[in-house]
Design brief:
It is a single chain. With 452 residues, this protein is α/β, with parallel strands linked by helices. The protein has three domains: 136 residues, Alpha-D-Glucose-1,6-Bisphosphate, Chain A, domain 3 (3-Layer(aba) Sandwich), CATH 3.40.120; 210 residues, Alpha-D-Glucose-1,6-Bisphosphate, subunit A, domain 3 (Alpha-D-Glucose-1,6-Bisphosphate, Chain A, domain 3), CATH 3.40.120.10; 74 residues, Alpha-D-phosphohexomutase, C-terminal domain (TATA-Binding Protein), CATH 3.30.310. The strands form four sheets. A six-stranded mixed β-sheet has the order 1-5-4-2-3-6, sandwiched between helices. A five-stranded mixed β-sheet has the order 8-7-9-10-11, sandwiched between helices. β19 and β20 form a beta hairpin. α8 runs parallel beside α9. The chain is globular, with a radius of gyration of 22 Å.
Length: 452
Amino acid sequence: MSLTCFKAYDIRGRLGVDLDAGIAYRIGRGFARALGARRVVLGRDCRASSDDLAQAVARALMDEGAEVLDLGLCGTEEMYFATAHLKADGGICVTASHNPINWNGLKMVRAGAAPLDAETGLAQIRALAEADDFGPARAGAQRDISTEARAAYVDQVLSFVDIAALKPLRLLVNAGNGAAGPTFDAIAAALGARGAPLDFVRMHHTPDGSFPNGIPNPLLPENQPATAQAVIDAGADFGVAWDGDFDRCFFFDHAGQFIPGEYVVGLLAGVFLAKHPGATIIHDPRVIWNTRDVVARAGGRAVQARTGHAYVKQVMRDEAAIYGGEMSAHHYFRDFTYCDSGMIPWLVMAELVSLKGALCDLVAARRAAFPSSGEINFTLADPAAAIARVRATFAPDARAIDTMDGLGFDMGDWRFNLRASNTEPVIRLNVETRGADVQEHVDEVSLHLLGR
């Protein structure tokens, strides 16, 4: 049986079509068998299907003789942290993050919360799950570690900021009825106990797998106005919104203006270079000039990685980078097992705003110096032909062409990146400039993509 839920570096699929409890069981056994895992951390998000899938994975792990260290409802990053902190052989979080309500999936890591290699680790798990020839079950065990693991996680998250440096701030936080609420409350309680003068206004805070306010994906423009208005209504200094498993977080300034991810990467890179002079920063290839400028001015070293958490995490480890960021709002930290977190960034931002002033002012100069278009999607009948047209047109005048991830064309005073989707006939375009108008270059590239 061919399993269609295996993707580039995790497992995702439609319930009852690509993924169900039986398939999750086989994947769980394949995971334990491939890794030789004796202790595995297991968590889940709040989707209605996640508990059944997590129970199936737990049975599978125990049938392979493993001890299941159960986190219960949690964020993916809590699984990452617990896997490394407890020196487990691997970790699994049952989550579909921001995918449609009829989807679910599994995010998996090996010891140390290191990513699984797509060509070996995931491929081996897939082959074992598809063969479904595991033999007799063995007797494993399951242990609830949710309380101790969360306490240790909160301590680690708070270690990223100087609590004494925090000034009185009001923050609007939108959990989107995903998994973020209880974890945020634990962090907020610990901040309060340590005297942090932060005031929080909570929005859509209770986990609810029916997602009464829509699937939590703050990157979609149509999902941003509700948070933006809530920030204004609350009189907040800034706003934060998370996706379903809160490994991504998104920012709004005090006026409700959404802050594009590439500028957040620049701000966080500056913070970590101020604390760790000369350190290495990792960025993705889509929008790069603002980040590279910030890093150069701060005396750091910028290194590019392919888009995607497995790729960024590996380069982070290879380079011993202090911080890495993607414009899609994934932020990675060396001192968080080189993994992404949606809770650390807003704490760091609160410290930055306390020390340097309003978020809108911190971003304004960067947006003026390096305007960007945001990611624009084109659904095309023949993406390969469209990319070929663009390359033929722009390559002769390009100062450089970057083929690490899609195609990046440096045209001197402007630059663009094209990436084709792996799963649908879509091309994603990002344009950036050195202070010049972005739209004219978006229009120019678009004409050739569309064959006009």
